[in-house]
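Field reference: sequence -> structure
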Amino acid sequence: MAYLQLLAGLFLLLAGGDLFVRGAVGVAQRFKVSPLLIGLTLVGFGTSLPELFASLEAARIGSPGIAVGNVVGSNIANILLILGLSALITPLGVARGSLRRDGPVLIGTSVLTIAICLFGRIERWWGLMLLTLLLTYVVHAYLSERRQADGRARLHLAEAAEIKPLATALPARLAVTLGGLTGIILGAGLLVDGAIVLARAFGLSEAVIGLTIVAVGTSLPELATSLIAALRRHGDVALGNVVGSNIFNLLGILGATAVFRPIAVPSEIARFDNWIMLAATGLFILFATTRSKVERWEGGVLLASYLAYVTVLLVPVLGRTLELV
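Structure field:
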């Protein structure tokens, strides 16, 4: 039963995420919203809605390991798994202006998250601070890009152009958006419930399940968006999507979840996985700043690092399985 819940949840998250972004972009276009603002918010942040609802659901039922692990694990998967796979398809070009601004923001939010987690609990006022920082970042980015059409603006315009609305009439676009949002909410509930049952069956902590199965499941929209962009040889869009998503995960999802319900941070995440997230972010920034692209071999390094990380997390399960055999 847990496996069926997981599969159903994964399907609804992937389909719902795609429908929501396409519908929301279509509605925004009908209301003459700037393509720049669409690319800056709806595309990069819209693909993170599965992470948001999964963490909110986990916080609601009292599973902080999944709520926090989902965010940290998604950021790790976005960089090591998704960018790794995307770079293997095509080298990922880097918009220098965008990286100069968003790279330090991503590093800074990662360090801030680690510092907050060291307190052992993310209180509501921490959450409000994170949401305020996110709003400040979005407003600053939009105003600066609107004034100067540099590489950052072109990247977000390209992100908006990647999304093709499924319908033409406004009521149909609204229906697609609502249907996608409904799918995300239902899928998040099924995924979290199935993951908890699976964790208990295999003797895993909820944190490990949140860092792996839930994190990868909620990252499926980013995976689909980035791989499609890479196949179209739009590597800069694939990279920009991940950077925007990771910033939103740390500031928006952790912030909103903490405001909804303060979160206790599992000690294993504070001691180990947060630092893996920071190391992965630093490695990505290093690769991106050399030759202004992430090469295929660097994508291979990112992907191998993710496989090694997951193996370390699952070693206890493998050991118990071998003992039973």
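Note: The CA atoms of residues 45 and 248 lie 6 Å apart.
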